[in-house]
Amino acid sequence: METIVDTVVLVAIAVVGAALARRLGFVAPLVLLVAGLGLSFVPGFPEAHLDHELVLIGILPPLLYVAALQTSVPAFRLALRPILLLAVGLVVLTALVVGFLVHMMLPAVPLAACVALGAIVAPPDAVSATAIARSVGLPRRVVTILEGESLLNDATALVMVRVAIGALTGAAIGWMDISVRVVQTAGGGLLLGLAFAVGAAWLHKKIEDPLLDDAVALLTPFVVVIVAEKLHTSSVVAVVVAGLYLGHRIPYLLSPTSRLQMDAVWRLINFLLEGVVFLLVGLQMRHVISGIETSWATTVQVTAVVFGALLAIRFVWMYPATYLARLVPRIRNREPRPPVTVPTVIAWAGMRGVVTLAAAQTLPPPGVDGAPDYPRDLLIFVAFAIIVLTLLVQGTTLPWLARRLGVREDNSAQDALAEANIQHAAGRAALEALEEHADGAPPTVVERLRGLVESRGNNAWERLGNQNRETPSAAYGRLRREMIRAERHVFKIARNEGRIPEEVLVRAQRELDLEETQLQRSDD
Q1: What CATH number belongs to 50-409?
Q2: What residue stretches are annotated with the Cation/H+ exchanger transmembrane domain (predicted)?
Q3: Residue ranges per domain, the chain?
Q4: Distance CA 47, CA 41 (A)
Q5: How many Å apart are CA 81 and CA 24, to the nearest integer?
């Protein structure tokens, strides 16, 4: 009962914090992190212990899966080169450089433990960077690169952590062993993700009940992760591949009702998980500080060096990775040279998150599994401090930096024009289908359907017009909403007076809700 109460309290705080963040114009992860930091020192507030297996198997899969579902596969494919440079090359470089720097400062600490710390703090978070990037209005290619990096870099980092821990505990690991492990984890995760995605797609095609569709969708990421862990492949790669595959094919796999329901379910799960995760990260503060046995002077010094190194390495990597590759004519012709402000913003968007803390918890205690005596408490604290510092320093200043450098993009007019053109083509196709199948239908029905096609086309073109004047479709939406409210009120009164049963009210209300939802979509 106590655990249930604590969970309800955490979810309630996360919801209130997210609502407060929206009202104040801040990004929810930052507000919830600060709230968790403050609550961790409130006397009597329950201590939070974030188990790494819960994060890696219970929390991370749905977050990565939803992010992959929403990622544009064509855009991801076009940005694959910079994504892999960041998700693989930068992570490996960061792990090695940070590892050697920490080892130089603390020669008594095994190099393997230092490299493990470097791999732990190397991957930027999959949630915070993209949440902030979208709220700022960064160019779509920049958002795609940040999304792609955060989807894949966890796999690289976790493989390096496992290799470093293996070396720390005395396992004989050579270059051949590392290569085999990389192929096994990454390649196995790719194949497993594709296999499960194909299987899930087949199930979605066969299922006609929207509730069963939702159930399959909810189970998919967890089943993929559990099987991947059992087979010792990369669960991150498997989940991301499955999400990309299914997200690209959702328009062909699901019925309209299933898509609407699934979107609502995933948005709720994503909202709650993101909130609780960052709140829990903040609540770890008291527990992490209480475990510190290393002197505070050493702790602060190592933390400062690691934080500075992470910033410097990302900047040093970004500019050559951006511009040297464009010396190749084929790449230069396909990818125009961006202004220097673009890699600057990408370099600054390196916030760490919950995966860093979960990976830190996998470090074996001294004397366990053959691990030597080393300052595990120090490494865990540094990992936690890096999460807090990057979120508070980079997360709060990224919007200002993007505005200052002018790295923002307003695609509303371009999107409206593209939608209007495609809507015009879709309207022609709809009218051709109507003429083909209209034989025997009442003329009033045919005219009504023609009017619907014309109305949708007009709505699309109206978005290109004067934004300060109410368009005909906007007036229609405003008036129709008032009519729906009046209709809904009549049904409620009839139910209250016993003139209709509850089932009639529910059915009528659902139809009105669906229509009002469509009106809201037209306004957006």
Answers
A1: 1.20.1530.20
A2: 12-403
A3: 50-409, 412-469, 480-523
A4: 10
A5: 37
